Amino acid sequence: MRIERFRWWHIADVVPVEEDLFGSERWTPAMFWNELAQRNFYVVALDGDELLGYAGLNTYPDEAWVQNIAVRRSGQRRGTGRALLEALLGEVARLGIKQTLLEVAVDNEPAQRLYATYDFEPVGLRRGYYQPSNTDALVMMRNG
Predict the structure, then answer these.
(1) Is the pLDDT at 144 greater than 80, yes or no?
(2) Does residue 44 contact residue 68 with C-beta atoms inside 8 Å?
(3) Domain edges within the chain
(4) Secondary structure E strands in the chain
(5) Which residues form the N-acetyltransferase domain (predicted)?
(6) Is residue 60 helix, strand or coil?
(7) Distances (CA, A) of 138 to 7, 38, 124
(8) Rounded to an integer, what distance in angstroms lies between the CA atom of residue 66 and that of residue 91?
(9) For 63-113, what is each residue's pLDDT tens digit?
(10) Parallel, antiparallel, or unpaired: how do β-strands 99-105 and 64-71 relate?
């Protein structure tokens, strides 16, 4: 597995993963185009030519927000999510940003456990954040 920058040509491979994992709450191709146009930091995990997952980060002077981390089902439980998160946190460190935040579905316990191993702690709740399911999001934060 290798991690590299997410480029426009990866969008076609990302869309089916979004649909499978997130259904009606999936991001559209236009949303990914917008993220890339904004020059946000996005990476993909590849096994040969197969896209295993992707992750994105939006940075500001004082904080960074993990936009998404997604791993196709066949790539799960193989360290792909961990590698993607480490790539994002590496960019945070490179930029000298001291605070990283993210939202995660309250019912996504595996992701919450992963984030906790990287010192993310719950700091808030966004009720009905994910639509149309109306699922709450746990806000987690990491310092340093």
Answers:
(1) no
(2) no
(3) 2-143
(4) 2-5, 41-47, 50-59, 64-71, 99-105, 121-130, 135-143
(5) 1-144
(6) coil
(7) 29, 25, 6
(8) 11
(9) 999 999 999 988 888 899 999 999 999 999 999 999 999 999 999 898 999
(10) parallel
Q: What is the DSSP letter of 134?
A: T
Q: What is the CATH number of domain 2-143?
A: 3.40.630.30
Task: Give the closest residue to 88 by CA, choosing from 33, 44, 22, 48.
Answer: 44
Q: pLDDT (tens digit, 9 = 90+) per residue, 59-75?
A: 999 999 999 999 998 88
The reply to whether omega before 132 is within 30° of 0 (cis) is: yes
φ, ψ of residue 72 in degrees (nearest 5): -60, 150
Rounded distance, CA 33 to CA 31, Å? 5
Residue type, 74: S
pLDDT tens per residue across span 14-36: 999 999 988 888 889 999 999 99
Q: What tokens appear for 120 in the block?
A: 């993310």
CB 122 within 8 A of CB 139: yes
**Residue 117 corresponds to which amino acid?**
T
What's the predicted TM-score (pTM) here? 0.89
